[in-house]
Amino acid sequence: MKDTDMNGAESLVHTLLASGVEVCFTNPGTSEMHFVAALDHIPGMRSVLALQEGVASGAADGYYRMAGKPASTLLHLGPGLANGLSNLHNAKKAGSGVVNIVGEHASTHIELDAPLTSDIEGIARPVSHWVHTSHAADTVGKDAAAAVQAAMVAPGQIATLILPSDTAWNPGGVAHDALETPAPVPFEEANLARAAEMLDGPESLLMMGGGALTEENLEIAGRIAAQTGCKLISEWSNARLERGAGRVEIGRVPYPIDIALKVLEPYKRIVLVGARAPIGFFAYPGKPAILTREGAEILTLATAGADLGGALDALSQATGSTDTPPAHVVEPALPERPTGPIDLDGLAAVIARAIPEDGIIVDESVTTGRAFFPVTKGAPKHSWLNNCGGSIGYGMPVAIGAAVACPDRKVLGLIGDGSAMYTVQALWTMAREDLDITILIFANRSYRILRGELTNVGVGNPGPRAIDMLSLDRPDLNWVQMAQSMGVEACQVATCEELEAAMETGLSTRSPYLIQVDL
Q1: Integer Cα distance of 148 and 12 in angstroms
Q2: Among residues of the chain, what percentage have pLDDT more than 70?
Q3: Pairing between strand 251-252 and 204-208?
Q4: pLDDT at residue 454 is higher than 60
Q5: Which family does the similarity line name (predicted)?
Q6: Which DSSP category does 4 fall into?
Q7: I need a surface site. Which of 196, 285, 319, 498 has the fewest CB within 10 A?
Q8: CATH 3.40.50.970 in the chain, residues?
Q9: pTM, entire model
Q10: What angle do CA 64, 129, 104 make, to 5 degrees?
């Protein structure tokens, strides 16, 4: 096809493919129909339909975390983008690269102020690093290449390209070659000598996040810890953490503020690699927002967008640890097989025993899952994905993206029932795409985390109306029926033995499977 034979939408698809974007998580409308048509007759792009835009944006987040390159979303005008904002917020906080393609009214139609007219750029900016509107068919390809390039800025960025429908249907589209992927920014070499001096003994801490949490980087950190005696810790929420037997273990800053303060109190010197200085998720009456001890020296060696591997290599050389065997390497170890009614300890034990080799764990277990980390550290090697933005409804969409990115790996989603209701439509996409995902829904029939937050903010004796606003009963949610109605096989369990058998069933099939875990 000659460039002059293309319309703008066709040049968009050709450019995305040339730039390495091979998956589109889509929920299109009228203004995007020419893009839909182009996806139909141009081979190479996998189109995954979502029934709600938050599923599409969350799936793109999960895809980037596992594939290391962006997918695109296809969203309908301002309201469609708005439906996806929550998980775009989470993706932005996770450092995920996403290319949003958002349809807009034809340029001649915008002035008529039709019902779906809105300020799309204004809606996009709070969750985007890069926003642009194409104004002619012959610039769409160039703009698309720039969007992908922006999404690949380390650690990953949200790029939103807005296409008026006439730029999609008009002739004159020109496909564009991929632009050069930006290199990560350098780490703070001026801080290297001081960072090496600071990591001296058990009162010093190497705190890591983002891309520093690969298996290779954790091994370097383990060498530094063995040589210097410093401790290792990661942020509470990590986009992707490599864990399991044979890997260097790293703990997390606890979520509960009182526990976090105690954990961080011993450390007088903290070096940051890919992490921010620890702060509380929220403000609480009479409690500090900064979680480190007063007077602690905190030094940033590398920000999340920097060359984290290079920073750790240099720090290892500066501390003389390049040939030191790493500390904190986890031995294979599984808990004893639990029996009887499911409690939190039994639940953690069953999950630890079931984690498959090279599995991908998507964690949105909120309160239920706080006991999971210590028990699962000796399980087979796996990747653990957290919600970095705090907006719930992330887990099932991210599981979709992870499964699309890594079809040869098992995906296990650990999801609270309140969180799952925000993006329940994700089950339909799992079934439609026949994705290898096993979902555990923790049915405690409440927003349990908010029960605790009532106490944390000083509400000591909440009344029945307050409790009722945090409860998910009257009626109870039936996850088995919901899953089955969307084509996902499902079961309900109440004992450890039932859960163990259900997880064995779910993980032994390559199709989606949901387990309602009654707590």
Answers
A1: 11
A2: 94
A3: unpaired
A4: no
A5: Belongs to the TPP enzyme family.
A6: G
A7: 285
A8: 3-169, 344-518
A9: 0.94
A10: 90
Of the candidates 6, 343, 306, 69, which has an alpha carbon nearest to the alpha carbon of residue 186?
A: 306
Q: Residue 290 carries which DSSP code?
A: B
Q: How far apart are CA 327 and CA 318, in angstroms?
A: 18
Q: Please tell me the least confidently modeled range out of 334-348, 415-429, 435-449, 455-469.
A: 455-469
Cβ-based burial of 372 (10 A; exposed 0-12, middle 13-18, buried ≥19): buried
Fold classified for 3-169: Rossmann fold (3.40.50)
Query: Which element (helix H / strand E) includes 224?
Result: helix 215-228
Overall average pLDDT of the 302-328 stretch: 98
Q: What is the DSSP letter of 171?
A: B
173 contacts: CB under 8 Å, gap ≥ 6 = 3, 6, 7, 8, 9, 10, 11, 12, 137, 138, 140, 141
Topology at the third CATH level for domain 189-318: Rossmann fold (3.40.50)
Residue 455 clears pLDDT 80, i.e. is over it? no
Write the Ramachandran bin of 78: left for phi over 0, alpha for psi from -120 to 50, otherwise beta: alpha
Q: Which segments of the chain belong to CATH 3.40.50.1220?
A: 189-318
CATH architecture for residues 344-518: 3-Layer(aba) Sandwich (3.40)
Instruction: For tokens 């992870």, name the residue.
Output: 402
At 11, the amino acid letter reads S
- List the structure tokens of 26: 């889509």
Partners of 515 in the beta sheet?
A: 440, 491
Separation between Cα atoms, residue 381 and residue 400, nearest integer Å = 21
H or E, element range at 361: strand 359-364
470 SS3 class: coil
Instruction: Give the Cα separation of 497 and 50 in Å (integer).
Output: 35
Residues 6+ apart with CB under 8 A from 438: 410, 411, 412, 413, 503, 506, 507, 512, 513, 514, 515
